[in-house]
Write a structure and sequence with these properties.
The chain has 235 residues and is α/β, with parallel strands linked by helices. The protein has two domains: 4-14 and 106-230, Rossmann fold (3-Layer(aba) Sandwich), CATH 3.40.50; 17-102, Four Helix Bundle (Hemerythrin (Met), subunit A) (Up-down Bundle). 48% of the residues lie in helices and 11% in strands. The protein has ten helices and six strands, in the order βααααααββααβαββα. The chain has a six-stranded parallel sheet. Strand 4 (176-180), helix 9 and strand 5 form a beta-alpha-beta unit. Helix 1 (17-34) runs antiparallel to helix 5 (84-102), helix 3 packs across helix 4 and helix 4 (65-79) crosses helix 5. The protein starts with a strand and ends in a 5-residue tail after the last helix. Bound molecules: magnesium ion (MG). Residues 8, 10-12, 180-182 line the site of magnesium ion (MG).
Length: 235
């Protein structure tokens, strides 16, 4: 019997790429005002290269998007000629500007009514590799556990974020279902710890042949409750 539903966030409850692109533009404008050496001394190729340079120095940062983004900013500010203390402070301020803009997400149709309804029948949790925070979006009232790769230190599809959600709610993997858009991070990751999985395939993508399929597939959030009902769920 399913007792816990865990949700991916980015591209499952809202579309992400356009919001992140807009947030990056807002950050660049802010840097242009507040850290002019950054935009003056680093062209777009140099700025694009920063992420790989930082990951080459500290590969583990790929699991923690917040620390990675701050490190990339700090590295770029230093490379552009800002002194160390200034680079440190500007990186943190710049990240705060980015993070504000990163929360300008628009929920997919049915997202909030779905969470409200499901939370009456199941324990709900979030498991995200990204740095959007449901508390900042006023959605935390629906969730008993909020798990991020940033905080766990390793990203999906590793078992740790899934195990953290299961442990915090106190549910066995066999009584939990994960819902997400990513075949590997979400579906394969959930299976690896013994959870069931539902693939949110909004864009009607083909399933990657090398992975075993999810237990179910929906193309719209409104299909989740009927799917649960048809598959022995509580609602
Ligand atoms: Mg996702």
């Amino acid at each position: 019997m399913i007792q816990l539903l865990t949700f991916d966030l980015d591209n499952t409850l809202w579309e992400t790429e356009s919001v992140v692109q807009a947030a990056e533009k807002i950050l660049l404008n802010w840097l242009d005002q507040q850290a002019p050496l950054f935009t003056r001394n680093l062209d777009s190729d140099a700025r694009r290269a920063l992420r790989q340079q930082v990951l080459a120095m500290d590969p583990e940062l790929r699991h923690r998007v917040t620390d990675l983004r701050i490190a990339v900013l700090r590295h770029g500010l230093l490379q552009a000629g800002h002194p160390e203390a200034e680079a440190e402070a500007l990186a943190l301020q710049g990240f705060a500007v980015f993070l504000d803009a990163r929360h300008a997400v628009e929920l997919f149709p049915h997202a909030e009514s779905l969470l409200a309804e499901l939370s009456k029948h199941y324990a709900l949790a979030t498991i995200s590799n990204g740095n959007a925070d449901v508390r900042r979006l006023g959605l935390d009232k629906y969730f008993q556990a909020i798990v991020s790769a940033d905080e766990v230190g390793i990203s999906k599809p590793a078992p740790e974020p899934f195990m953290a959600a299961l442990e915090r709610v106190g549910v066995e993997p066999g009584n939990a279902l994960h819902i997400g858009d990513h075949p590997s991070d979400d579906v394969h990751g959930a299976r690896s710890v013994g959870m069931a999985s539902l693939w949110f395939n909004r864009l009607n993508a083909p399933w990657p042949e090398e992975l075993s399929p999810a237990d179910g597939e929906v193309k719209c959030l409104s299909e989740i409750q009927p799917w649960l009902k048809a598959n022995g769920g509580k609602s």
